[in-house]
Amino acid sequence: MTNRERVIASLNHQQPDRVPYCVDFTVKAHAKMADFYGDPDFAGKLGNALSTLSTALPDGWREVAREIWEDEFGVQWNRAVDKDIGVVCNQRITPEMLEDYRFPDPHDLRRWQPYPAALENNNGRFFVANIGFSLFERAWTLCGMENLLMAMVENPDFVHKLLNRILAHNLARIEHACSYDIDAMMFGDDWGSQQGLIMGPRLWDAFIRPRVRDMYQAVRARGKYVFIHSCGKVQSLFPALIDCGLHCFNPFQPEVMDAFDMKRRYGARLSFYGGISTQKTLPYGTPGQVREEVRRLLHEVGKDGGYIAAPSHAIPGDAKAENIAAMIEVLRNP
Question: Whole-model pTM?
Fold first, then answer.
């Protein structure tokens, strides 16, 4: 089977010849493993099943001051510490400014220029078009996390208007991306902390659920699979997400949810992507413990499909090189 065939079989809850996998790295972890392997191009040789295409503008990020990067929405990120994403350090929208704020053009054809060449040279991979910071995250980056959460209670009309504008922007990106021969859309939207939902179930239901459903159904109507990346303890949302049309959940953090219990409860209706501990096993375990954890996930969660093996997030810089190597060894040779 090709990697694409393995992923499709898994998403259709059929047993592939082996569990597909995908390993991503933070900047620090990538540098560590390039040194470990003595090969700066090692990541391209891992055999990852997924290939991600961006829906962002190719020149959407620019450095506006030392260690300060601005995205296409005008949000500025301080990357002095976090080199991969950064910390938001400005505010673009208030209730008074919303009507005058101009969103970037979702129809800008430069977003899709890399697609034809990438899809033509697919090498049997499963292609995922990504909308990061897709709804809740996009809203709080624009107006501030505390401001958004307070407005959900004190100024819900503002929040609905803001989320509707983000939704309209996303639906246009979905339409363009799905006009190409991609396989899936991935939405990034962290709703959880280590303890539970950031905004709680009632506010998630009021503000997030109807718009998530609109996005997922727009993807499904075009014959593509739906993925969500949402960190934290969000498993209480699985029934609602399945109802909205979700196919695959990521990152499947073992620190906040029991991967094997989730498989038993939801494995007939939902696929999982992730599950390998980046908070405990990869940084603090031994190579033997890593091999044991990965093999168990492959054999139990991967049984009858429904699983794409991966670390539960891009591998952080504190993960041990020998542990990362042990994980890769088992993924490639289960």
Answer: 0.96
